[in-house]
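Customer escalation, tier 2.

The customer says the design service returned an amino acid string that "doesn't look like it belongs to this structure." They asked us to rerun it and document both sides in this ticket. The original structure tokens are below, unchanged.
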């Protein structure tokens, strides 16, 4: 079998703070996401990645956790990132209580039943992913037209940008999703 991201040499033993973080993941999620295990070969990189993720996905925002996960899924769908489609598709299914929403976003968000706000956010994130050089004021205005603020627009762009980066890393190093994600919230 070919080596994967999880075959990177790991820091042993894990620093106390990292070990506590992984234990918290086990407690809350029932697993340590493989993305964290992959980054654990370099604790500074793991801490930077975790800080950015925690800020963007769990921090204060005018966007709900579900909206941020939806952005992660549609960006990952455009990039065909296996890891993120599985992991964040599971999060959308769980947070929405609608397995069909997670599936639609993975396959083609345009077929999902979405609010105008959600549709505008996802259209923006996809355009940013596919052709960011063509972003214009009309794209930002479409978000304002559905009630999103300048800070919300920043958050949409930041989440989309983060997942564009993580998708490319996951693909480049053959990061695989935890098997548990496949069956969650179905």
């Amino acid at each position: 079998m070919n080596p994967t991201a999880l075959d990177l040499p790991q820091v042993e033993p894990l620093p106390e703070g990292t070990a506590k973080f992984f234990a918290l993941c086990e407690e809350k999620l029932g697993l340590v996401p493989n993305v964290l295990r992959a980054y654990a070969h370099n604790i500074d990189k793991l801490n930077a990645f975790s800080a950015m993720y925690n800020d963007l996905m769990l921090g204060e925002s005018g966007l709900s956790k579900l909206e941020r996960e939806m952005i992660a899924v549609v960006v990952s769908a455009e990039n065909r990132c296996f890891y993120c489609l599985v992991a964040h598709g599971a999060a959308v299914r769980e947070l929405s209580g609608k397995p069909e929403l997670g599936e639609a976003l993975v396959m083609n968000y345009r077929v999902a039943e979405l609010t105008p706000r959600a549709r505008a956010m996802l259209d923006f994130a996809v355009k940013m992913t596919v052709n960011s050089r063509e972003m214009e004021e009309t794209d930002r205005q479409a978000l304002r037209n559905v009630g999103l603020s300048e800070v919300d627009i920043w958050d949409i762009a930041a989440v989309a940008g983060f997942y564009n980066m993580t998708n490319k890393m996951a693909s480049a190093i053959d990061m695989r999703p935890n098997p548990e994600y496949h069956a969650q919230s179905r």
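Tier 2 assessment: The sequence is consistent with the input. The domain at 65-183 is CATH 1.20.1290.10 (AhpD-like). The mean pLDDT is 92. Sent an explanation to the customer and offered a walkthrough call.
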